[in-house]
Amino acid sequence: MTANTLDAAALYDLTRPRPRPRRGAYGILCAVLILGLLAWILSLLFDTGQFIPTKWRPFEYPGTRELLLRGLGITLKAFGSAAVLSPALGFVLATGRLSHHWWVRRPATVVVEFFRALPVLVVIFFVLVALRAQPLPALVAGLTLHHGSVLAEVFRSGVHCVDRGQREAALALGMRRTRVMSYVLVPQALRAVLPAVAGQLVVILRDTSLGFLITDEEFLHAGRLIASNLDYDLPFIPVVMVISPICIGMCMLLSRSARWVARRERRSPETEAVDVAPAEPGTLLPGGTLTPSRCGGVQ
Fold first, then answer.
1. Which string of b and e fits 77-115 if b means at least 16 CB within 10 Å?
2. Model confidence, pTM
3. Residues in contact with 201: Cβ distance below 8 Å, sequence separation at least 6, in sequence order
């Protein structure tokens, strides 16, 4: 073994030649099991008549496609509103919880703990019934209050994760607490909590489907109207097979976008490659010059 191989073996468990075929066999076995499971599910769908033309006929009509597109637009509208308002509310509540004034910290703590403990559906019905709001504003308000409280704890945890020395060094330089929070702690905390915030946005997108319980004409409500049609033999499974890939695709697109933003945020100009001019003969230091000395040499 060479020195590099020994160093790698000391840090990692290198795969020996004998286990490699075993790992390949395990991979092939898992792929066969997954394909067998998919084939079994497809056989059940064929046996129950889920692919007969009658159940797929509703998607041939323009009215059905317009209903789905309108529901998808309402879902994206609710998600966009909640995705903007929830982080804003969470940032305000987190700032209140981090305040040094008890008359600000305690009410913010009560609000966060109250709405974080309640199920999001209870919050939506509370806004709908108690405040007599319309379905879409009630859905957005319920999502904002619940997920904003969750994000408040995420932001507060991110600030606490920053090294304590950062705060102490900034205070030692004479910075005010507000400037320490704004210029030192918050930028570092946002980079740390960005994956958690992205995951919470995916949850917000998923929870928009709760709007069909309050008769909000969102994507899932439109699918339920199509699936409950007796003229087409209750096409529930075809509706699920059409709606599910769209919902999964939106969540995957949101997750990939969040990972791309996280990679961009983690890039630091200090770690990027910088072009350095080649050293010239007689140069002692970068930017140095040769100066004659009194003894006839150079310094």
1. ebbebbbebbbebbbebbbbbbeeeeeeeeebeebbeeb
2. 0.77
3. 83, 254, 258
Residues 230-248: tens digit of each pLDDT: 777 888 888 999 999 999 9
Q: Dig out the tokens for 87 from the structure.
A: 């982080």
Which of 112, 94, 121, 105 is CA-nearest to residue 213?
121
- pLDDT (tens digit per residue) in 45-93: 888 888 888 888 888 889 888 999 999 999 999 999 999 999 999 999 9
Kindly report the number of other CB atoms within 10 A of residue 47's CB atom: 8
Neighbours of 198 (CB within 10 A): 17
Of 220, 198, 202, nearest in space to 210 by CA:
220
Q: Which residues are within 8 A (CB) of 134 and not within 5 positions of it... i.e. 6 or more apart?
A: none
Burial of 9 (0-12, 13-18, 19+ CB in 10 A): exposed
Amino acid at 108: A
Burial track 210-248 (b if 16+ CB lie within 10 A, e otherwise) = bbbebebbbbbbbbebbbebeebeebbebbeebbeeebe
From 135, 136, 141, select the one nearest 115 (Cα to Cα).
141
Q: Tokens standing for 213?
A: 């319980």
| SS3 assignment, position 211 | helix
Q: How many CB atoms lie within 10 A of CB 167?
A: 17
DSSP letter for each residue of 237-257: HHHHHHHHHHHHHHHHHHHHH
The span from the CA of 258 to the CA of 172, in Å, is 36
CA angle in degrees (0–180, nearest 5) for 250-251-255: 120
Query: For residues 116 and 147, what is the distance between their CA atoms, to the nearest angstrom?
Result: 7
**CA atoms 286, 291, 295, 297: torsion sign:** positive
